Predict the structure.
Amino acid sequence: MAEGNVSGREATVFDFGHFRNTDGAGIRTMIFFKGCPLRCKWCSNPWGLSVAPQLAVNRERCVGCGACVRVCKQQVNSIGEDGRVEMDWERCSACGLCVAICPASCRKIAGERYDAQGLYEQVRRDLTFTRRGRSGITLSGGEVLMQWEVAAEVLRLCKRDYIDTCIETSAFGPWEHLEALAAYCDTAFVDLKHMDSARHREVTGAPNELILENIECLCAYMEQRGRRVIVRHPVIPGYTDDESNAEAIARFMAQLPGKPDLNILPYHNLGELKYTMIGEECEVTGLDMMKKTDERIGRIVEACERLAPQVRVTVGGENIHWD
């Protein structure tokens, strides 16, 4: 892709995170791109799965005024027996008429279209307050590779202005697309969920051969440029926490170019409400939040100490070392 050659292209974004202190060095502006090719059963960002804009409704905040019922041309809304709105999600076209009229502000459209310049302007506004310290941008999702051309141009514009850049990716996509993003990245976070391809397909909907190959290519590419890769492993009880997976991850990390860090992410259930807000069901429910001292976390740390002693291991997104 030629530099700046994205005229007329737009990407769908479902959220912005302003003044974050994780997912990169210093204070971060995060942009969450919509659309993901994987279907991880524990996904905590379900609004990012579909690339299309979606209506999201927080039913708990509904006051039962009926304004959304009256305005909807598709007859999506009705008032239930408990006095709160009920949704016929199959009818909803995400037109947004009900969003502006809701007095309780319990509705929003998850997904807006931006070109690269528009996204860059979001970053520039935040930098008015943070530029004196270490700060930067992190592109996340969903999966940023789904809309790689606009994402790469946003990163290019940021690097032009000496802004620190990061991406978060599953690495499930063509290497050429990942390389186009990595070319403008200071740090790349990349997920490593399960080393067994058959099990990976069961829990994410896709095998892992492409992901593992891309991780190796990414580590080599970033090492050549003096840039950083941080491999992230989400520990999900019953899905990714088996002992054989812990040892396989350690062995894989030991042979990667550039000695990337391993960042272990304990399971959390903070995304469950988001599923009901878009009329979906979360497959992983009822699990307790995992503590950083959980023995399953310790199992991975121990495996790395034994099989990949050169790998620096951190637990939790906020504990990464920024040298």
Summary: The chain has ten helices and 13 strands. Residues 209-224 form the longest helix (16 residues). The chain has a mean pLDDT of 93.
